[in-house]
Design a protein that fits this description.
The protein is mainly α. Helices cover 56% and strands 6% of the residues. It folds into two domains: 41-441, no CATH class; 453-589, Transcription Regulator spoIIAA. It starts with 15 loop residues before the first helix and ends in a 44-residue tail after the last helix.
Length: 623
Amino acid sequence: MSADTPPPSSPPPESPESTEKAEGPEHTSAAAYRLSRLLPFLGWMRQLSPGDARSDLIAGLSGAVLVLPQGVAYALIAGLPPAHGLYAAIVVAIIAGLFGSSRHMVSGPAAAISMVVFGTVSTLAAPGSPEYLPLVLALTCMVGIIQLSLGLMRMGALVNLISHTVVIGFTAGAGVLIATSQLKHLFGIALGDASSFLGTWWALLGHLGDTSWATLITGLSTLLTAVLVRRLNRKLPWMLVAMAVGCGVAALLGGSAAGIPMVGALSGSLPPFSLPPLGFDTLRSLGGAAFALAVLGLIEAVSIARAIGVRSHQRIDGNQEFIGQGLSNLAGSFFSCFAGSGSFTRSGANYDAGARTPLSVVVAALIVLAVLLLVPDVTAWLPLPAMAGLIMVIAANLIEVGHIRQILAVSREEAVVLVITFLATLLLPLEFAIFAGVLVSLVLYLNRTSRPRLVEMAPDPEHPELGVRNAERYQLAQCREVVILRVDGSLFFGAVDHVQRKLARYTGKHVILLGTGCNFIDIAGAEMLEIEQRRLRDAGGSLSMCGFRMYALEVMERGGFLERMGRENYFHTAEAAIASLRDSVAEAHRAHGDQPAACPDCQLFGPAGIGPGQGVRLTPPLA
């Protein structure tokens, strides 16, 4: 041991480094939190168990089987070659799954988004032309930038405007739409250009005589197998079992030779790198559509995530979902993908297949990539009617019958929101359906909050310990000169007219407003109170306030309304407000010779009263 080496028993001298190490746990936890926000997939990866991985593997296999024909179909809807739909099912799905907050939502090509992409870009370039794909990629890049910017600015709270009822209605409508879109594959009928809900049913009814029985039997056998296996044991890979049965039935009936359509073979290649052209002219021509498409994609994605979250009891972080969607579309635009969003069908299938984490999405994407590269011909053996039967089962699972019954039974207003959102989803473009539901729910909410209740309160002689109570509910006698009104709601611009009409009934009386149920007062509400105080005073009455929260009075304080109304008219308790009126109403409670008092049995000021000074607790007011 050298002279410079301290003895083993000697504690090492403290240094800045040792101090930092002592504080290590706090710094480590803060760093871990920031890292989890930056890389959210690290959270569920740490908690991944072998059982979770096994469930995700099965769900990924099922999801891959489902996304193959969907990717092809949505690419064709967008006016692109089929391979681009699978590119989106790989790149967009993986990035959104890793950086989003939902553990079950599957992103990628989606029907509504594909149609909007086609409708936007086809006005600038013909599908199939050399200019078409670059414009699609530019649109996708712009959509990703907008979505990512909204997420980084923490605008995810915007989705809180989408109520649970709107989500339930939209989900149910989407389930019906998805099932309707599969009818042509189930019956083997060519419906021409019919694509709307009503148009599809009208065309189907007009061509039922053209039904392909081999196609229908294949689809129904898959559908019934899926329903039966699900009822027997939900833990079984019912989608794979149903698909196997559907493939077997199609083979027995003759397959393609019997007129049963197949998914068809794919051309295998990796998603090629591409650079979106973001020139000034492109930004100008696609800017408005990009913003609309970005908002539509976010609303759909968060709505799907919340709908699945209701079933899985997972809380969805709107900001993180915005970031995940933005990154997925931004990255996808560099790998020949068109804009994507959450998929109702694949998300529902992923959850129903038993997925535990986004690993199922990664597994499905990797399987699609392997099929695309190694065995592109395997999709030639997947019958489209079998896929249609499977998708119809998934669509039925999107309809939350229990929640719908509860909403219809409990609240008329919520039922209106539910029905309007459901019908809008069926009859309007999807981008307007959620807006319709949100608009109706906000209108009904504003209508409800613009009519705050003014509840007449009075002491209960049988239960003086409870304070003042609802006079009408408990049939309590009230003073003829003093009215105690509890304000159940905020006094804002929308409620001013309603409150003024209610106060007009008490002209000439002394009104005490209990503000325990008032959350805030805006300038319009403060002005209304000042006007009503002056009107009541001119008519021989008065207006006093008590029990309001201090933050509810902030506007009145800053605006000088309390000074002009007189601080002597504001009280912290109802007892003090009532006591201040004793002299003003003394004449009405005093007999004059043979004339009885105007208010002889008053519970506040009469001879038999139990009012202030006799121990009654008048605050806090109870319902």
